[in-house]
Recover the amino acids of this structure.
């Protein structure tokens, strides 16, 4: 029998003037590292790293489900509204969780839409974090697909989403983890993936903010998989060049969901990224 060292709890915070009951998982001790999931998924993407004793010996990994995702329920009255994630609501949610957990300048590690918002926070709220690890992150990519396919009465949105993202998983990914990754998208709530992609494919406000990021205040390290068709290495390289002092690593055998699709392959790159972050960040008393 194995009992994993991951603990799951809830924190209630205010977002948009209303309460949000947020589910989060954590493992480890020491420097806090907030881990953000991709569009249409949840904290399970981070489970392998949170079970890594070497990483958690000196890092307190904290992953939370955004509202509408995983174990974080939608707000009351969700059935009467259309879910469309915005940059403003995303930023407010992340900051609310940081404050709700009383974290003092954690490292922020986000993948895909989580990487995009990490760069937004690096530009707009660098004082709240000690460093940023932006995974599969770039300035902007317009959709090369019709996002409305992910919320239609004549199609299963979860299976459509899984079909789309399957092309972004590296052929080197272990088969079991490939399917575990796709299962999260198959389980996504109605319209959630579409609502996330609305943020990801329509908000280009980060482009003009990149040059304002001060990496002397908080370092920015971008990681991208060579098999990522959504955020290509060229996209990530363009973005890194626009941020003075940012660093970049291209992962030769990984795709868009590295911590989930191929955790062993991603592990050394994540350790490298953590090594670029300051050690001084700690929990507030």
């Amino acid at each position: 029998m194995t009992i994993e060292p991951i603990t799951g709890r809830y924190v209630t915070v205010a977002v948009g003037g209303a309460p949000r009951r947020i589910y989060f998982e954590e493992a480890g001790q020491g420097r806090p590292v907030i881990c953000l999931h991709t569009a249409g998924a949840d904290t399970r993407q981070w489970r392998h790293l949170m079970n890594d004793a070497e990483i958690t010996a000196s890092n307190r990994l904290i992953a939370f489900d955004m509202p509408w995702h995983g174990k974080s329920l939608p707000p009351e009255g969700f059935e009467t509204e259309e879910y469309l994630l915005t940059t403003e609501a995303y930023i407010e949610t992340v900051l609310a969780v940081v404050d709700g957990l009383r974290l003092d300048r954690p490292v922020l590690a986000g993948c895909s839409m989580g990487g995009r918002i990490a760069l937004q926070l690096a530009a707009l709220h660098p004082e709240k974090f000690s460093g940023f690890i932006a995974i599969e992150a770039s300035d902007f990519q317009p959709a090369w697909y019709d996002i409305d396919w992910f919320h239609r009465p004549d199609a299963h949105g979860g299976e459509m989403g899984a079909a789309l993202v399957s092309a972004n998983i590296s052929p080197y990914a272990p088969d079991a983890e490939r399917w575990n990754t796709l299962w999260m998208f198959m389980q996504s709530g109605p319209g959630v993936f579409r609502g996330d992609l609305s943020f990801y494919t329509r908000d280009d406000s980060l482009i003009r903010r990149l040059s304002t990021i001060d990496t002397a205040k908080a370092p920015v390290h971008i990681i991208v998989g060579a098999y990522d068709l959504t955020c290509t290495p060229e996209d990530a390289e363009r973005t890194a060049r626009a941020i003075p002092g940012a660093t970049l690593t291209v992962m030769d055998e990984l795709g868009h969901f590295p911590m989930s699709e191929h955790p062993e392959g991603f592990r050394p790159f994540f350790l490298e990224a953590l090594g670029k972050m300051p050690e001084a960040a700690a929990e507030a008393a």
